[in-house]
Design brief:
heterodimer, A: 2 helices, disordered N terminus, B: alpha+beta, three-stranded mixed beta sheet, 17% helix
């Protein structure tokens, strides 16, 4: 019903075109997040390896 | 709730790290006996010189290779300010303060006690290498803080 009215207005020369604006598409491809995954794993591994180094230093001085 | 599979990987990693850290903490504390260098012993900081064993600070031999070192920290030094033990000795340091917060730390070892007035800090170390070990205060305790030190001489038997 709304579309019909808009088309009618459009046909009378208003600013609305006869076509609906394109809907934004959401990408679900895994590739779009691979950079994020690598970044957070980089930070996580840095934390774990730093902790491990300090813990081994503590054990070696026991 | 829908989770992206990369988010699941990150959650597995996070939960795994948490389990690893907590398991290490539990095993260290309960199976290996690691603990912070405060053992809950208390005393009146205004009567340190009258309270055993700090009325006679110094080294006490417990068995063939084990010693207890009762040490009093004060601005700006330790009593006694020199200890001598043979190589291979295990020394249990028991330290208290009679004025402000100090520390008792031996560089390159795990001995690093925060010495708080009214409490007894305790740490243990086995000296496997001969030499002169410097003990430092690493809690700023006043204008003479940088002079506060003592030595432990570890000699061949």
């Amino acid at each position: 019903m709304v579309n019909t009215q808009m088309e009618t207005k459009g046909s009378k020369g208003s600013f609305n075109s006869q076509h609906d604006p394109p809907h934004p598409t959401v990408s679900t491809q895994d590739d779009s997040l691979i950079g994020t995954l690598i970044s957070v794993f980089g930070v996580g591994l840095f934390i774990v390896l730093s902790w491990l180094a300090v813990f081994l230093l503590y054990l070696s001085r026991g | 709730m829908r989770l992206h599979r990369y988010e699941k990987y990150w959650l597995y990693f996070g939960v795994g790290a948490l389990v690893l850290f907590l398991a290490t903490l539990g095993v260290s504390a309960f199976a290996m006996g690691f603990s912070p260098p405060g053992h809950g012993d208390v005393l009146d900081p205004t009567k340190v010189e009258e309270t055993p064993p700090f009325d006679e600070p110094g080294l006490v031999q417990v068995d063939e290779n084990t010693y207890v070192a009762n040490i009093v920290a004060m601005t700006f030094g330790y009593t006694p300010n020199e200890l001598e033990v043979p190589v291979g000795s295990t020394v249990i340091f028991r330290v208290t303060s009679k004025d402000v917060v100090h520390s008792f730390s031996i560089p390159k070892t795990n001995v690093n006690i925060m010495v708080t007035p009214g409490y007894v800090g305790e740490a243990k170390h086995t000296f496997t290498e001969p030499g002169s070990y410097l003990v430092l205060c690493n809690e700023y305790c006043g204008t003479g803080h940088h002079f506060m030190q003592m030595t432990i001489e570890v000699s061949e038997p």
